[in-house]
Amino acid sequence: MTTDKLLFTVISTTMVVVLSLLIGLYLYTNSNTILNNSTQQSPELSTQVQIIYNPSAGQSYLILSLKNNGNVPIMITNINIDNCTLNQTIILEPGGTYQNVSLLPSTINIQPGISYTVIFKGITLSTHKQFYIITNAISSED
């Protein structure tokens, strides 16, 4: 084997090894970033929901207690009860809480003792990823 062929073989092998290492490092770095983003950006919303019906006034109230247990800020854009959407904007920082009593529209026919599905729709503020939190609340009479 001549010196030129030997030198060419050594340089070629070295370049293939270096290129393989660079591609492997690039893939490793990006896969860790993707995994970290998917595990760290998930909303965790703790909800306590009560629906109270006042028969003498003929009105119903929604009592909310929310806490963001996740590590990203979230924004609730609306709340759905019995196919009726309540447009409310609630922003919760990580660890933040929100409590409120709202008068429900008369279009929602609330009956005491009935279980209602309450759906919170929102987005994470860091990635604008949409999410839904679904819970049930049994209405009671005031």
Overview of the structural elements:
- The protein has 142 residues and is α+β, with helices and mostly antiparallel strands.
- It folds into two domains: 1-40; 45-141, Immunoglobulin-like (Sandwich).
- It is built from one helix and eight strands, in the order αββββββββ.
- The protein has one helix spanning 3-40, and strands at 45-54, 59-68, 74-81, 84-92, 97-103, 115-124, 130-138, 140-141.
- It has a four-stranded mixed beta sheet, with no helix packed on it.
- The chain starts with a helix and ends with a strand.
- The relative contact order is 0.19.
- The model has no long low-confidence stretch (mean pLDDT 86).
Q: Regarding CATH, which class of the largest domain?
A: Mainly Beta
Number of domains: 2
Q: Supply Rg.
A: 28 Å
CATH topology of the largest domain: Immunoglobulin-like
Brief rundown of the structure:
The chain has one helix at residues 3-40, and strands at 45-54, 59-68, 74-81, 84-92, 97-103, 115-124, 130-138, 140-141.
Jot down its keywords:
142 residues, four-stranded mixed β-sheet, four-stranded antiparallel β-sheet, 27% helix, 46% strand
What is the fold's blueprint, element by element?
Blueprint: H1 3-40, E1 45-54, E2 59-68, E3 74-81, E4 84-92, E5 97-103, E6 115-124, E7 130-138, E8 140-141
Parallel strand pairs: 1-8
Antiparallel strand pairs: 1-2, 2-5, 3-4, 3-6, 6-7
